[in-house]
Design a protein that fits this description.
Layout: E1 36-37, H1 43-52, E2 61-62, H2 77-86, E3 90-91, H3 97-117, E4 119-120, E5 123-126, E6 135-138, E7 147-155, E8 168-171, E9 195-205, E10 213-222, E11 227-231, E12 238-241, H4 245-250, H5 258-266, H6 274-290
Parallel strand pairs: 1-4, 7-9
Antiparallel strand pairs: 2-3, 5-6, 6-7, 8-12, 9-10, 11-12
């Protein structure tokens, strides 16, 4: 079916323009890996390898006004960071969970986009801010199949044994409940993905640091393996993850198989509000017109 305007999900695969993306956190000098040609790739293993090398290097918010003589010179990145801090240029990142999570997510996604550049046969598209997924992978190394990767950030509760709140895995009453439909904010229908993976960023809040983040840990699992039987919110229609940190690390969710996970949550009595119902009616009408 022809559409009047091209959506974000339909645009060609490309790495975002760094100059245009001026609001995103910038990474310090990082050596770009040599470009490698991969005939066949296990995306889960590849993601875990990349995550093992990730460092959160958003040191602080930068304030242009400083208290020092100009010009300011530095021997290296660490010396520059110290001089900027001493010169009054640094402000701490926000402590509010959603705001800090957004900064972390953007940093991780940017990092993975850079890593894809050095892997022949692998392509990636960045999702919309509130869409699904955060990253869509494809390419000859994946037999041109599509793979969904969502990035989630969770602050550890006191003691570090649980997350402060449950991670949201899916929006239960839209693209997950009706996987044959292409919902707004998605690249394609949910059921067209070869697999669904979730990259979880666990961290401890450290109010004494400008970055606010300590003990950052990245883990990747097939999404169903970290699923729980609880919603992540009592007021919203979200599929929730387990919140035990040890189980998250191991991928020991509350379901024994993908079939058990999907059967439970597809039967769950999610509420469908007026706005969602209107979207659903429109999508179903479009589907009927295409037959």
């Amino acid at each position: 079916m022809a559409r009047a305007a091209e959506s974000d999900a339909e645009r060609p695969y490309q790495v975002p323009d760094r100059k245009a993306d001026a609001g995103a956190p910038r990474r310090r000098d990082r050596a770009t890996p040599e470009r490698t040609d991969v005939a066949s790739l296990d995306l889960l293993d590849w993601l875990r390898e990349q995550c093992a090398e990730y460092e959160f290097d958003v040191a602080a918010l930068y304030r242009t006004r400083g208290d020092h003589a100009w010009p300011l010179t530095a021997r290296d990145a660490n010396d520059l960071e110290r001089k900027l801090e001493d010169g009054g240029h640094f402000l701490p990142l926000p402590k509010e969970p959603a705001a800090l999570a957004n900064i972390l997510e953007v940093s991780v996604v940017d990092y993975l986009l850079e890593r894809v550049e050095s892997t022949l046969g692998l392509e990636v598209a960045r999702g919309t801010e509130r869409g699904y997924p955060d990253l869509e992978f494809t390419g000859s190394s994946l037999d041109d199949a599509f793979h969904a990767v969502d990035v989630k950030v969770a602050r550890l509760a006191s003691g570090g044994r649980r997350t402060q709140s449950r991670i949201t895995l899916y929006t239960g009453n839209t693209y997950f409940r009706y996987p044959q439909l292409r919902w707004p904010g998605t690249f394609r229908p949910f059921e067209e993905y070869e697999q669904h993976l979730t990259l979880v960023c666990l961290y401890t809040l450290d109010a004494t640091r400008y970055s606010r983040v300590s003990g950052l840990e990245l883990i990747v699992h097939p999404t169903w393996t970290i699923g729980s039987r609880q919603r992540s919110s009592t007021t919203r229609e979200y599929v929730g993850a387990i919140n035990d940190v040890s189980a998250l690390r191991d991928g020991r969710g509350e379901f024994d198989s993908p079939a058990a996970f999907y059967t439970f949550w597809r039967r769950f009595n999610f509420r469908i509000g007026r706005a969602v119902q209107q979207q659903l009616d429109r999508l179903l009408a479009e589907q009927r017109s295409e037959r």
